[in-house]
Amino acid sequence: MNLEKTEGVLSTTAKPDKVLVDEILSRAMGLNGLSHEDVSLLLNIEEEEMLHELCQAAGEIKELTMGKRISFFAPLYLSNDCTNNCLYCGFRRDNKSAVRVTLKEEDIIAEARFLQDQGFKHLLLVTGEDRGKNGVQYLSSAVRAILKHTEFRRININAPPMTIDEMRRLRGSGADLYQSFQETYHKETYAVMHPSGRKRDYVWRVGVIERAIEAGFSKVGMGTLLGLYDYRFEVLALLAHAALLRSRYGITPAALSVPRLRPAPDALLDKPPYPVSDSAFKKIVAIYRLALPYTDLTISTRESEKMRDEVIHTGASVLSAGSRTEPGGYTRSVSTGQFEIEDKRPLDVMEKVIRAAGLIPDL
Ligand code: SF4
Predict the structure, then answer these.
(1) d(CA 20, CA 27)
(2) Between vectors from CA 296 to CA 253 and to CA 291, what angle results, nearest 5°?
(3) What is the pLDDT of residues 178-221, one digit of tens each?
(4) Ligand 1 centroid to residue 162 C-alpha, Å
(5) Phi and psi at residue 270, in whole multiples of 5°?
(6) Percent of the chain at pLDDT exceeding 90
(7) Which of 14, 176, 227, 296 is 20 to 30 A from 144 (CA-CA)?
(8) Contacts of 311 (CB under 8 A, 6+ apart)
(9) 91 CB less than 6 Å from ligand 1?
(10) 219 lines ligand 1 (CB under 6 A)
């Protein structure tokens, strides 16, 4: 991945005029993605009218590739024990006020059954990074227990980077998709945000998606944490990373998340160094849809009701609902959460919202 080239493209790209934007949008309707140069031009859009056209095109592309369905999932936080110190996270090791919990098997099953009773069909298991407490052995057992004791059949994993052998074990347990967010592709920012712990190693983290593919995960998920660095760089770098996976393995990410930095309990970062406005956020979602027309685009409950109600028409295809970020948070709230939730509407309300918007909730 040539990040210097990415910086170069950004610094030399001008703002596009309407004629050029129309040309790019009509190319995008061919559903073959966009070039680096086209993405970088679209990232420079600021005028309302062009932004509106971009969002409209993204909505049309989403309908062409995925129809009217909006899928739902629930995150199930298994453990907030963590040996890393990410400045933006409530689970960071040096947060001494955090109440730490690593769920036992019976608690994991209770949480999963609670979500099953709510109507969810898809789970995303999430943990901090403490290899002694929530490493591959723990995660694989959690997946097996959920598959054995509940009706869930599709379990996705958001877990810290592992070796290929560990990934193989995880895949062998029945996990369907592995995802890991790079947080930021900008190396200097990465070093500042991740001052200690294994996560400090940029190369170890950026290589995890390839290790997951080599270990047998045909479905992988990616993302950056918006607000840590210039979003234009992050979007281009992520798409360059996705292009690399396609050329090396013939695999396009099955899922792409678009998390924007939120306040977190006792986080050291109290506001984003590079705030992303609502209008920039919508632009990012729309550009991802044009660039990766067949990839699921996930918008979590970090975003407001208003924003989520808008982006379901401009490219988003997957939402979480009624989420808790505390391990055990669905059945007993005694631990510390990872970040603050903004949209608190439960699944049954979200189903009605989706239908009222003329779309189809897909559980
Ligand atoms: S973001 Fe992940 S790795 Fe970093 S402190 Fe939080 S749980 Fe640990």
Answers:
(1) 11
(2) 70
(3) 999 999 999 999 999 999 999 999 999 999 999 999 999 999 99
(4) 15
(5) -90, -15
(6) 91
(7) 296
(8) 282, 285, 299, 303
(9) yes
(10) no
Closest atom of ligand 1 to 83 CA is 8
**Around 337, how many Cα atoms within 13 Å sit in the side-chain half-sphere?**
16
Query: Is the Cβ atom of 199 under 6 angstroms away from ligand 1?
Result: yes
CB of 173 shorter than 6 A to ligand 1: no
- Whose C-alpha lies nearest to ligand 1, atom 7? 128
Q: For residue 251, what are its two tokens?
A: 């695999």
Whether 129 lines ligand 1, by a CB cut-off of 6 Å, is yes
- Give the position, in ligand 1's atom list, of the atom nearest the Cα of 92: 5
Q: Which residue has the tokens 């920012």?
A: 189
- Kindly report the protein residue whose alpha carbon is nearest to atom 4 of ligand 1: 86
Report residue 251: phi and psi, to 5°: -120, 130
Grouping H, G, I as helix, E, B as strand and the rest as coil, residue 71 is strand
Using the mean position of ligand 1's atoms as its centre, give its distance from the Cα of residue 122 in Å: 23
Contacts of residue 304, Cβ cutoff 8 Å, sequence gap at least 6: 342, 343
**How far is the centre of ligand 1, averaged over its atoms, from the C-alpha of 91 (Å)?**
6
Q: Hunting for tokens 């610094």 — which residue is that?
A: 11
Element (H, E) at 283: helix 278-291
Per-residue 3-state assignment (H helix, E strand, C coil) for 232-296: HHHHHHHHHHHHHHHHHHCCCCCEEECCECCCCCCCCCCCCCCCCCHHHHHHHHHHHHHHCCCCE
Confidence of residue 67 (pLDDT cuts 50, 70, 90): very high
Q: Are 112 and 150 in contact (CB under 8 A)?
A: yes
84 within ligand 1 shell (Cβ under 6 A): yes
d(CA 84, ligand 1 centre) in Å:
6
pTM, full prediction: 0.96
Q: Write out the CATH class of domain 3-362.
A: alpha beta
Rg value, the chain, Cα: 20
